[in-house]
Structure formats: C-alpha cells, structure tokens
Amino acid sequence: MTRIAKPSIKPVNPRFSSGPCSKRPGWTPAALSGALTGRSHRSREGKARLADAIARTRDILQLPEGYQAAIVPASDTGAFEMAMWNLLGARGTDVFAWEVFGRVWLKDALDILKLGDLRVFDAGWGQLPDMSQADPVRDTIFTWNGTTTGVCLKDASWISDTREGLTLCDATSAIFAQRIDFSKIDVLTYSWQKVLGGEAAHGMLIMSPRAFARLESYEPPWPIPKTMRLKEKGKILRDLFDGVTINTPSMLCLEDYADALTWAEGLGGLDALIARADRNAAVIYNWAASTAWLAPLAQDPLTRSNTSVCLKFSDPDIVAHGEDACGRFIAELGALLEAEEAAFDIVAYRGVPHGLRIWTGATIEAADLECLTGWLDWAHREIKAREYV
C-alpha cells in the first residue's frame, strides 16, 4: 500500500478528549487569577460567588420558572446518584440504558438501591431503546446523550406532559450543546468538565418543582450518606440551591467555571454554543462519510451526537483478522497520533466497539477538527502499510 505524506500542519489544540474536555479557546491559567483562594466558601464573598455561578447557569440554560440548580460533590456521577438516592422508590421505575453510564445507573438501581419494581429497556451499541415504552405513572431514568456511544435522543416528545412519575436525566455531555425541553425533565445533572471545558469533581443538580414536591413528601427507606443528602431532619436543604454547598468546593474550579460562563455569554449564550457544536460535529461526520475505514456508531443519523462523535472501525482488511486485530490497530493509531502531538485521547471508551471518540463540543475549533482529519487519514494509511500489507 502506498503511504501518503504526513501533514505539515497540526491542530493548534490537539485536545479532543471527551472528558475532561478542552478548555475554551484562548484559556490560560491567568483566567484563575481572581480566584478566592485561601478564603472560606462560607464567607460572604464566597457564598456570593457560588450563588452567582448558579444564577448565571440558570440564565444561560433558560431554565423554566421554579427550576433550581445546586453545586454538589463528585461530578455528574455524584449529582445523579444524589438524585437517585433521595427521590427513587416512591413509585415503580423504568430505566433506559444504551451506553456505559446509563448501565451504571441501572446497576445502582438493581444492586445498590435494590428497587423492586424495576423495568429495564436496553439497546445494543449504536442504538436507542424504544423510548415510547416509558410509563408516565412511573419514574424514568435515562441519559440524554450517550458520551461513550455517541447516541443521543432526538427530542423529549416521548415524555408525557401529564406524567405522574419523575424523569431523571443525565445530560452531562448534552447540556450547553443540545436543545433540551426542560418542561419534560424533573431532574437533570451534569458536570463542569464537558461542553464548557471546566474542571472535574463538581456536579450540577437541577430540579423541577415536581421534584421538590417529591423530595418534601417522600422519605427513602435507605440511609443516605452526608454528601448525598438533600434533606436534614426531614427538611429540604434549600440553602444548597443558593450556593451553600454540602462540602467544601474548590474555589479555583469555581473561578474556572465562572470564566467558562463568561465566555459562553460573550459568544451569544446557548444558541451560539449549540451552533458551534453542530458545526464541529459536521466536520467529522462529513469526513467519515468519505472514508472506508470508519463509520458512525450511531445507526440512525437523527440520533448522532454533536459532542461525543463515536466512530466504529470498519476497515474490511483489518476486520477480517478479528476483533483483537481491530483493537490493536486502533490502539496503535491512537498512540501514533499522540506521539505526533496531533490528537490526544481519541480512542473509543473501553468495552465499546473498537473505534474513535472525538469530542466536538463548543470549546473545540472547527479548523482543528479539519486539520485532524488529515492526520487520521495519514495514521491509518501509515499503520496499515507498515504492518498489514
């Protein structure tokens, strides 16, 4: 096989990890110079900064009246488990799982909370379950955008406007990049480390008035650890939604999130963030349509993510050698691109079909993705010519 010339230009920012994701364009550590380091988060200024971050989040996301947001421990994982532990068990629960983290929530519901009245709707890699099976009388758990598979929901039309149960949505790789109808969502969680490129370890918990009503009226039968409690002595911790956090947050990370919000506001808010992600994803999907060795893992084009673009390895010459050969090829391709400093962290998530996972959220520049495609073609041809021809 004839090799092709190595590209002469590299992406300005080769960081295409799906989490933690790339910082905003132009970010430097100087963005943290105003951080309230060495000060208590319980001080007047500390609480004011936490409250300000929450208020600006509500504004950018255009949350409906009565919806409240809180900063909680342990990233999106902590936020979603907090919602599960505090709210589930009052009704039967439906779990929709089609990617790795959706199956984590399923495992929690089955093995940790041991919910008795549980229905499971699963789907293979690259597909969605039949969302119309959701029962409006029951609680529903789902992810909006499958970070590990690149499969996202088309919309929320399958959720009843007259539902009796609560809808719990993990939207960590969708929020700020995809249009979400919050009127259909009772609990939504995410972390700072995805579309806005913030730091890890802190989660965001958004709750509707219906979720607050459940929280107020329902006492779960299991003990809840301190860092996951939304109530104390039967009373809702209302201050949590004003920035009085359960445990000590990083004021450096808070400053970084505030900087990301300022960047988002300067772009034009939610519409501009969504448009950037759409343009970015189109670069990769359009390129993939012209290749013979990668294809979108999401089978339905309407369910293809605009942030976590997952591509399945499909080179027939290598596929013929079996799964192990595909895994070795992709691992070598990822290592070669890292060695060239052309792309970092783009190999598919473990356990998912062999391929690539390229982050195309709003902090990525389309020009860097266009540059990346040339490097992908070169690396594929280089490894194949070296070892398989």
Helix content: 25-40%
Oligomeric state: single chain
CATH superfamily of the largest domain: Type I PLP-dependent aspartate aminotransferase-like (Major domain)
- Overall CATH architecture of the largest domain: 3-Layer(aba) Sandwich
Span of the ends, CA to CA = 6 Å
What form results from the Cα inertia axes? globular
Number of beta strands: 14
Our estimate of the beta-strand percent is 5-15%
Major sheet: 7 strands, mixed
Uncertain runs: none
Element-level helix/strand string: HEHEHEEEEEEEHEEHHEEHHEH
At the first level of CATH, what is the class of the largest domain?
Answer: Alpha Beta
Radius of gyration, in Å, reads: 22 Å
Task: Determine the mean pLDDT.
Answer: 97
CATH topology of the largest domain: the name is: Aspartate Aminotransferase, domain 2
- Report the structural category: alpha/beta
Number of domains: 2
**How many separate helices?**
9
In spatial order, strands of the major sheet run 1-9-8-7-4-2-3
Can you walk through the features of this model?
With 389 residues, the chain is α/β, with parallel strands linked by helices. It folds into two domains: 30-265, Aspartate Aminotransferase, domain 2; 270-387, Aspartate Aminotransferase, domain 1 (Alpha-Beta Complex), CATH 3.90.1150.10. The protein has nine helices and 14 strands. It has helices at 44-61, 75-87, 100-112, 209-217, 251-267, 270-288, 316-319, 323-339, 366-387; strands spanning 68-73, 93-97, 118-122, 139-143, 145-146, 151-152, 167-170, 187-191, 202-207, 231-232, 235-236, 294-296, 308-313, 355-359. The strands form four sheets. A seven-stranded mixed β-sheet has the order 1-9-8-7-4-2-3, with helices on both faces. The protein has a three-stranded antiparallel β-sheet with strand order 12-13-14. α1 (44-61) packs parallel to α5 (251-267), α6 packs parallel to α9 (366-387) and α8 crosses α9. The model has no long low-confidence stretch (mean pLDDT 97).
